[in-house]
Amino acid sequence: MRKDTCLLCQIIDGTIPSHLIYEDDLCIAILDVNGAMLGHTFVIPKNHSPIMEQVPDQELSHLFTVANKISSALFEKLRVIQGTNIYVSNGVPAGQRVAHFMIHVIPRMDKDGINLQWQPKLVADEEMVTVELMLNEQLKNT
After folding, report:
1. Residue 71 DSSP symbol
2. What is the side-by-side strand order in the sheet with 20-23?
3. Spatial contact of 49 and 100, defined as CB atoms under 8 Å apart
4. 1: how many CB neighbours lie within 10 A of its CB?
5. pLDDT in tens, 72-128
6. pLDDT band at 4, cuts 50/70/90?
7. Measured by CB atoms within 10 angstroms of the end CB, which terminus of the chain is less buried, N or C?
8. How far is CA 138 from CA 56, 57, 62, 132, 141, in A?
9. Given this model, what pLDDT does residue 1 score?
10. How far is residue 10 from each of residues 4, 70, 98, 102, measured CA to CA in Å?
11. Residue 49 vs residues 24, 105, 111: alpha-carbon distances, Å
12. Pick from 140, 49, 36, 34: nearest CA to 98
């Protein structure tokens, strides 16, 4: 997707209105109008990067720092919340709906009906060892 047709880039440049709660040189944070809970926030880099691997490390670090600040603000101001989920849907199979990286910060309460659970999958030890070796090797080279 090109930057000029990206929904989030259009929100960043003000073409599409949003409920902006934070902005600095690198990112914005907006309330999700279709959020899982009141206060569900997106932290969005101003530079167009479709997936996390394309966001420079320093910028990525800043985005998570901002997500943490948003989480703290939600606890402080929406006193009914008991937790937050901070997560990334990285790629279409992971649930990413817009080709622009973002971090979700979702306020949580006990029995709020939001289900981010999955069924554990039993993996054979041989498969675990194979993946462990592959990833160890890859990460040594980065």
Report:
1. H
2. 20-23, 27-31, 41-45, 103-108, 83-87
3. yes
4. 13
5. 999 999 988 899 999 999 999 999 999 999 999 999 999 999 988 888 989 999 999
6. confident
7. C
8. 19, 18, 25, 10, 5
9. 52
10. 7, 22, 12, 14
11. 17, 19, 35
12. 49
DSSP E strands, the chain:
20-23, 27-31, 41-45, 83-87, 103-108
> At residue 2, what is the residue type?
R
In the block, tokens 């402080």 appear at 76
Q: Dig out the tokens for 61 from the structure.
A: 């670090």
Amino acid making up residue 60: L
Fill in the amino acid letter for 61. Answer: S
Tokens of 51: 């997936």
Q: What is the pLDDT of residues 26-37, one digit of tens each?
A: 999 999 999 999
Between the alpha carbon of residue 34 and those of residues 11, 21, 37, 62, 100, the distances in Å are 15, 16, 9, 25, 17
Report d(CA 103, CA 61) in Å as an integer: 12
